[in-house]
Amino acid sequence: MTSISQSKTNSPLRQRMIEEMTLRKLAPKTQPGYIRVIKNLARFLGHSPSPPPVSAMTIHIQKLYLERLNTVLNGQQKCNGQVLLEVF
To answer: If DSSP states are collapsed to H, E and C, what string results for 34-79?
Structure first.
């Protein structure tokens, strides 16, 4: 059986979804079902589902979280907020 992550026709969004499911340790047999559901959703919508836009409030909350985390670490390795913001 061929893994869905080995397919050569993966769009960047599909590849990201596969990577996220792998990180969340979804069973390999579960992943094709999730992909199929999103594929059917895209067909219903008439376009590829896009990730939600990042709002100013989301960025503000992320910055507050990082500030609090850096306060808790108090001298230990500091977090790089720029890396977190670039992920979203």
So the answer is: HHHHHHHHHHHHCCCCCCCCCCHHHHHHHHHHHHHHHHHHCCCCCC
Is residue 51 a part of any domain in this protein? no
Domain span including residue 78: 56-87
Claim to verify: residue 60 and residue 40 sit in the same structural domain: no
How does pLDDT run along the chain (88 residues), one tens digit per residue? 445 555 567 888 888 888 989 988 888 889 999 999 988 988 988 888 776 677 888 888 888 888 887 776 655 555 555 444 444 4
Angle, nearest 10°, between helix axes 12-23 and 31-45?
150
Residue 9, burial from CB neighbour count under 10 angstroms (0-12, 13-18, 19+): exposed
